[in-house]
Amino acid sequence: MNPKIDRHRPSRTGMFAFLLLGIAATACAPTSEDEWIALFNGRDLTGWTVKITGSELGEDPWGTVRVEDGLLTVGYEKYDGFHDRFGHIFYEEPFSHYQLRVEYRFIGHQIPDAPSWAFKNSGVMFHAQSPESMLRDQSFPLSLEAQLLGGNGTDPRPTANVCTPGTHIEMDGVRVEDHCIPASAPTIHGEEWVTLDLLVLGDSLIAHIMDGDTVLTYSRPVVGGATVEEFGEAAREDGRPLTEGYIALQSESHPIQFRQVLIKPLPGSR
């Protein structure tokens, strides 16, 4: 989503810093293959459902999301213009406590009539409302977003930020209502593969991790805010804690590919 970024960051002192070291160690620890579940099988979109703004659930006449050479690919070759057709592809099950790993890369060029903020902009939505509960013209699900950004070759533009479509979070025990908050992460200017881990422990702790470095932490997400339009009132419930939800990958006007989408359920999983 639109990166209206505030420079607030959580402190990392005392017991909190000790906990972060444990988080990073968990993300980097050697794991056996059977601990990970592949949500994307590398062959087709089994288990996933597309929802594009202005279309009914499951409709994608433009072939926006498909599998090419074993990669989950988002592209716009059949579009006559973007026309705010923001899209998401949802996995079929909700999750609560887990480690999620995605490998992604931006490719090619943004579709010309798309908003400038969506240049090399995508995201992993989680703790999201179900795709069935989204309205036909709803642009984004009520969710948390691990924002994936790419650089323009010159300016700093960190990836792995958090955005809050229709939600709020806490940092250091303080409610933060800014829409996007930056991570202490690098800027990725090229088309190389990037690996991002999310450690999600219900609503008690969420961490964004890159190469073993915890670049952002927050907790206690709740429904609230006005950054989602055309939402269903039944899904809104301002103040409701977000302890679980669906995982979705974004389609925001710049081509992107995903090589892996892996999940490792953790104690406390539903």
Structure description:
The chain has two helices and 17 strands. By secondary structure, it is mainly beta. It has one domain (14-27, 37-265): Exo-inulinase, domain 1 (Jelly Rolls, Sandwich), CATH 2.60.120. Strands 1, 3, 4, 6, 10, 11, 13, 14, 15 and 17 form a ten-stranded antiparallel sheet that branches. A hairpin with a 2-residue loop joins β10 (167-171) and β11. The longest helix has 15 residues, at 14-28. The protein is globular, with a radius of gyration of 17 Å. The two termini are 28 Å apart. 42% of the residues are buried. The model is unreliable at 3-18 (pLDDT under 50).
Summary, kept brief:
The chain is mainly beta. It contains two helices and 17 strands. Helix content is 7%, strand content 38%.
